[in-house]
Amino acid sequence: MEMKSVKQVDEEAQARLEIWNYVFGFTPMAVMKCAIELRIADVLESHGGPMTLSQLSAALACSSSVLHRIMRYLTHRRIFRQMSASQESEISYVQTPLSRLLISNGGNSMAAFVLMESSPVMLAPWHKLSASALMNGTSAFEAAHGEHVWKYTAENPGHSKQFNDGVACHARLAMSTIVHQCPEAFNGIRSLVNVGGGDGTALHVLVKACPWIRGINFDLPHVVSVAPKCDGIEHVCGDMFELVPKADAAFLMWVLHDWSDDECIDILRKCREAIPEDRGKVIIAEAVMEDELGEDEDKYRDARLALDMVILTHTEKGKERSMREWEYVVNGAGFTRFTVKRIEDISVLHDWGNDECIDILRKCREAKVVHWIDEGEEDKYMDVRLALDMVMLAHTEKGTIEKWEYVVKANGFTRFTLHSETYPSHYISNRGPSMS
C-alpha cells in the first residue's frame, strides 16, 4: 500500500470534517426553532438578567439535563451567552443581540421567519430537489406537495398564515433598513402601490416613516382578506399579471425572484402601465448575485447563494439574479434607465442512556468506540460534536467525559484511556477488564 504524505492525510482529514459539518448542517436551524418554541429568549428577556440553568428549566418546565445540552449548543453558536461559573455557583445564561431576534413578539423579531422556513411544509421540498432537476421544470415543492407553492398556500389556511407571518417578519425588518438607508427613493411620491405586499407590514413601516404617502397594499384575495386595517393604507386584491392599481410609484420587495424572466417582464410592464409616464417610478428591493466579486469581498454571498437554493426549491422558475440578468428584465419591460443602491441587509453508545450503556458494556467488554464531549475544549471538531449531540437528543430517548466515566466505572472497569484521532470524536479503547 502506498504511503500517504502528511499533507494528503491532513487534506483528507479536513475533507471528512467538512462532510460531517454538511451532514449536520440542519442542526443550527432545528435547535434555533426549538429555542423559539420553548420561548427561551422570551423568558430571559422577561427575567431581565442572567438566569441559572435551574431557574431557566423551572421557568420553561423543561428537563434540566436536556436544556443543558440545548443551551450548550446555542451558546457555542453564540445565540446565547454563558456566564462564567465558579465551583460554588451554577452556570447562568444571558441574552445576546442574536437571541433577542428570537423573542416571539419583539419589534425586530425574526422568530416567525425562522418558524416559516423550518416548517415541515417548507422543508419537505428539499428532499425532492434532485428529483426536480430531472423532471423538466417541475418544482421540488410541487414534487413534494402535488401543486405549486402559490396554489398550495391559497388552499391551506394554516400554512398561509405561517407563510404570511414569516414574510411580514422579513418585510418589517427589510423595509426599516430601506427607509433608513434609501430615504431619497421616496421623495416626491404621494401614492405608492406595494405589489405583492402581503399583509401590508412593509407598507405600514413606510407610511409611518413617510406620512405624506398614501399606500395601496396589493396582493391575492386570500392574503388581503386577512390583512389588518391600518391608517394610510388601502388593501386591494387582484392579480399582478392582469392589472396593477394606479399610483405614483410601484414597489416590489422579494417578489420578482419568485418568477421567470418572462414573467418578471410581464409584471414590470403592468407596473409601468400603473405609474405616470412623466414622473412615475418602480422601486425593486431584491438580492443581486455579484458573480464578479471574490468570496472574501462580500459578507452576504453565502446568504445570497443559499437564498437562490431556497427559490430553486420552492418555486417553479424563480431565481436570484446577477446585475446583468436584472438589466435584461428591466430593459425588457421597456424601462430605459435605472439606478442601483446597495443596502446592508441582507457511533453506537450515544444512542442510549447511562443505565442502558452499563448493561451493554457488561454484555460486551470489547466496545471500541465511544463518543464524548469535552465542554471546555476549543477545537475544529467542536461544531460537529455538539451537532451530533443534538442529533442524539432528537433521535433517541435518552456524553461529557464525566458521563462516560460514570458509565465505564459502573460497569466495573477501573481505568481507561482516551485517544484522539482525525475524526469528530474521541474514542475509549478497551483491552480487557481495565480500560487502558
From TrEMBL:
Domain O-methyltransferase C-terminal: 126-335
Record keyword Methyltransferase present: yes
UniProt cross-references to SUPFAM superfamilies, sorted A to Z: S-adenosyl-L-methionine-dependent methyltransferases, Winged helix' DNA-binding domain
Recorded GO MF terms: O-methyltransferase activity; protein dimerization activity
GO process terms (BP): methylation
Family, similarity comment: Belongs to the class I-like SAM-binding methyltransferase superfamily. Cation-independent O-methyltransferase family. COMT subfamily.
Organism: Sesamum radiatum (Black benniseed)
Keywords from the named record: Methyltransferase, S-adenosyl-L-methionine, Transferase
Superkingdom as given in the UniProt entry: Eukaryota
Pfam family, one: Dimerisation
O-methyltransferase dimerisation domain residues: 20-104
Protein name: Acetylserotonin O-methyltransferase
InterPro entries xref list: COMT-like (IPR016461), COMT_C (IPR001077), COMT_dimerisation (IPR012967), SAM-dependent_MTases_sf (IPR029063), WH-like_DNA-bd_sf (IPR036388), WH_DNA-bd_sf (IPR036390)
